[in-house]
Amino acid sequence: MADSVAYKVLTADQMAALEQEGTFAGAPIDLADGYIHLSTAAQLDETVTKHFAGQSDLHVAAVDLEVQGDALKWEPSRGGQLFPHIHGPLLLETVIAYGPLERDDGDRIRLPVAG
Questions:
Q1: Parallel, antiparallel or unpaired: strands 5-11 and 58-64
Q2: Whole-model pTM?
Q3: H helices, E strands: number in the chain
Q4: CA-CA distance, 22 to 1, in Å (whole number)?
Q5: Residues 52-71 pLDDT 10s
């Protein structure tokens, strides 16, 4: 896969924990499945719509995939699309940008940009 950045949607509490502890073991679904679920930029909107509908105060973290090594695996979802998964914790040092989940005037998710 050519994508070098993927995205993790986090609640405010999860984002705060990642910032404070420098590591995030995963949301309940990640812990149940045994890996951290990520989405590519193209997959992010569907992920938010499907798994975070009606939730507010969400955050998006841009994760550098190139530094994940063997922990990164591209695996098919139920629909057959390949999604990036981290088999291990998400480390703050591998997050290249993050911010609140916001949408632009066209209702597209604004991706976080490193300052």
A1: antiparallel
A2: 0.93
A3: 3, 8
A4: 27
A5: 999 999 999 999 999 999 99
